[in-house]
């Protein structure tokens, strides 16, 4: 389950980067970034490092 959470976080960060540089999607892009950062923090706090 933790691997899946990390995978989702990476996908969200990539989606944010593509959206940020390619499109002007407004606040949706930043919401994706915040979700990805939260997922990474949960993984770090959970005990296992990246």
Polypeptide structure, described:
By secondary structure, this protein is mostly helical. It has one domain. 80% of the residues lie in helices and 0% in strands. It is built from 2 helices and no strands. The longest helix is centred in the N-terminal third of the chain and has 21 residues, at 2-22. The radius of gyration is 12 Å and the shape is elongated. The mean pLDDT is 75.
The SSE order reads: HH
Total beta strands: 0
- The averaged pLDDT comes out at 75
Spans of at least 5 consecutive residues whose pLDDT stays below 50 are none
Envelope shape: elongated
Strand composition percent: under 5%
* Percent in helix: over 70%
For the biggest sheet, the summary is:
none
The number of domains? 1
| Count of alpha/pi helices | 2
Which structural class fits the helix and strand makeup?
mainly alpha
Radius of gyration: 12 Å
**Measured distance between first and last alpha carbons:** 14 Å
Key features of this structure:
50 residues, elongated, mainly alpha
Would you spell out the secondary-structure blueprint of this structure?
Blueprint (H helix, E strand, L loop, with lengths): L1 H21 L4 H19 L5
Helix pairs in contact: 1-2
Question: What is the structure about, briefly put?
Answer:
It contains two helices and no strands. It is mostly helical. It has one domain.
């Amino acid at each position: 389950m933790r691997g899946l959470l990390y995978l989702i976080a990476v996908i969200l960060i990539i989606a944010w980067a593509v959206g940020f540089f390619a499109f002007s999607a407004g606040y949706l892009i930043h919401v994706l970034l915040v979700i990805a950062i939260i997922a990474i923090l949960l993984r770090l706090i959970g005990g296992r490092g990246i």
